[in-house]
């Protein structure tokens, strides 16, 4: 049978080796080469997620990769999403919809079912795209996780696709990472590894060349490229919080603090604050005091009542009281919004043990959690000022509903005529379910003005991400061996005359650099 689609998989020696970034770079470069390309991640464990147009939930990284590929995100790009709610349990989301909360052992037994969804989604993408670029999860050499694996080599073996392994040289020990990972794979898995990529290299490439030669001789696998360290790359993170800022202290007009909950979710909400040249953004670690600032933002949470208890245990509730007493502003997003209300009831034990928690009592709302998750895209106008409407857009991912008191002031008038969010009577506190509050330039400027800062109009979030994707793609185009990569893709087609990219190099690409 003639194969219509090529699949190439990026696996890593460790978590955060650069898999998500490399898949995004591959997607944009292959798109530029003329391929109709889509990203895919069989199984993702992350608390940063995105909502597709059809109301499904996928990992945030796959939404960014879809943008790199120039296509709309789909639930089939991340058929299994695990959202941890405790150290041993997670909500299991299959093809965009939450199906159950499972402990690790139960999910291990469920993997056969999950694998069917993975293969179904891969087939759906195969029917629509020329090339599928797959992202692995963690490392394929985790011995305790290899049985029933659906995220790495288990998937690669099931669809019979080639694998590229990426390692982060900035961590050190890159040759041990690559050789050790390869040696721990089964013989059939080793054979499907078609090459390595080394990520985040700093310095003179000539000093690395002897090591690259040794690696190729030792493993009989080619090094397909060495990617330089890309300073200040601002792509939405899959999981780890990006706290680094590149700002001039003299330009700062507002200081914003975000307490980091144990189960913080969708911290990409703060990306546009972190890259704003006039905003100092501080993520406050657990057991650390909240410093003096202008605005405190309570973020989303995957386990709201547990993180509310943590907030009180850390005495952050006392810091909020003091902050408000001195005229500071407070904003709650999603779970943080729920915490600012009077009560959070979980009668069905959706997130944890059934019960009701007393909220912080700053906003006139009461919340009840329900098993059915709400996943929507929303557009509307901010109601902070009485002047011209300030457009805002974003997405909602939450369980339960919050009921406002009749006289409560809403924050947003949605385009469907409904009101969303809440403003305190004294105008010091805001709350909203809308993720992406800061992604629209006018809305960001308006919210910062509410918090007391006169700032310049920022870039649109989508445009900012597009700029970063272009930076990444330029590096990948320049430093990866596209002759070899295009050959890997073409070798999967029965007919060599497939009308995608040619094997001609599209740029001056060197084997190692």
Automatic annotation (TrEMBL):
This is Cobyric acid synthase. InterPro entries: Class_I_gatase-like, CobQ/CobB/MinD/ParA_Nub-bd_dom, CobQ_GATase1, CobQ_N, CobQ_synth, GATase_3, P-loop_NTPase. Transmembrane segments: none annotated. It holds the Pfam family CbiA. SUPFAM superfamilies: Class I glutamine amidotransferase-like, P-loop containing nucleoside triphosphate hydrolases. Residues 256-442 form the CobB/CobQ-like glutamine amidotransferase domain. Pathway: Cofactor biosynthesis; adenosylcobalamin biosynthesis. Catalyzes amidations at positions B, D, E, and G on adenosylcobyrinic A,C-diamide. NH(2) groups are provided by glutamine, and one molecule of ATP is hydrogenolyzed for each amidation. Residues 8-237 form the CobQ/CobB/MinD/ParA nucleotide binding domain. It comes from the Bacteria. It comes from Paraglaciecola chathamensis. Keywords: Cobalamin biosynthesis, Glutamine amidotransferase. Belongs to the CobB/CobQ family. CobQ subfamily. The active site is at 334 (nucleophile), 435. The keyword Glycoprotein does not apply.
């Amino acid at each position: 049978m003639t194969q219509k689609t090529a699949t190439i998989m990026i696996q890593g020696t460790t978590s955060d080796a650069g898999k998500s970034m490399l898949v995004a770079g591959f997607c944009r470069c292959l798109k530029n080469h003329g391929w109709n390309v889509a990203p895919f991640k069989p199984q993702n464990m992350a608390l940063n997620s995105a909502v597709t147009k059809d109301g499904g939930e996928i990992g945030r990284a796959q939404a960014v990769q879809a943008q790199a590929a120039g296509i709309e995100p789909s639930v089939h790009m991340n058929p299994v999403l695990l959202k941890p709610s405790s150290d041993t349990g997670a909500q299991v989301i299959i093809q965009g919809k939450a199906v159950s909360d499972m402990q690790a052992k139960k999910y291990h037994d469920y993997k056969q079912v999950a694998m069917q969804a993975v293969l179904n989604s891969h087939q759906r993408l195969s029917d629509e795209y020329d090339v599928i670029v797959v992202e692995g999860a963690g490392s394929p050499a985790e011995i305790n996780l290899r049985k029933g694996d659906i995220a790495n080599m288990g998937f690669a073996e099931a669809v019979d696709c080639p694998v590229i392994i990426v390692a982060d040289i900035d961590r050190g020990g890159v040759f041990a990472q690559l050789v050790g990972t390869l040696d721990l794979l089964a013989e059939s898995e080793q054979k499907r590894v078609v090459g390595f990529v080394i990520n985040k290299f700093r310095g003179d490439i000539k000093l690395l060349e002897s090591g690259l030669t040794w690696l190729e001789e030792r493993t009989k696998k080619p090094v397909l490229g060495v990617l330089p360290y890309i300073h200040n790359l601002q792509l939405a993170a899959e999981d780890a919080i990006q706290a680094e800022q590149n700002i001039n202290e003299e330009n700062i007009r507002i200081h914003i603090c975000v307490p980091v909950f144990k189960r913080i979710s969708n911290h990409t909400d703060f990306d546009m604050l972190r890259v704003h040249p006039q905003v100092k953004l501080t993520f406050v670690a657990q057991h650390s005091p909240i410093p003096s600032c202008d605005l405190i933002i309570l973020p989303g949470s995957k386990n709201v009542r547990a993180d509310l208890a943590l907030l009180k245990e850390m005495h952050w509730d006392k810091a909020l009281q003091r902050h408000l007493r001195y005229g500071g502003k407070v904003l709650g997003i999603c779970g943080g919004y729920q915490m600012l209300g009077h009560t959070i009831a979980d009668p069905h034990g959706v997130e944890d043990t059934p019960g009701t928690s007393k909220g912080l009592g700053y906003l006139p709302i009461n919340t009840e959690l329900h098993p059915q998750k709400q996943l929507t895209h929303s557009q509307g106008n901010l109601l902070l000022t009485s002047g011209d409407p300030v457009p805002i857009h974003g997405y909602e991912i939450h369980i339960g509903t919050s009921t406002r008191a009749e006289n409560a002031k809403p924050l947003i008038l949605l385009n469907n005529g409904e009101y969303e969010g809440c403003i305190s009577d004294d105008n010091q506190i805001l709350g909203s379910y809308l993720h992406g509050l800061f992604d629209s330039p006018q809305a960001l400027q308006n919210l910062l003005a509410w918090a007391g800062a006169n700032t310049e109009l920022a870039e649109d979030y989508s445009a900012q991400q597009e700029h970063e994707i272009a930076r990444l793609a330029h590096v990948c185009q320049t430093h990866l061996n596209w002759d070899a990569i295009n050959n890997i893709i073409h070798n999967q087609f029965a007919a060599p005359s497939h009308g995608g990219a040619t094997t001609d190099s599209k740029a001056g690409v060197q084997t190692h650099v």
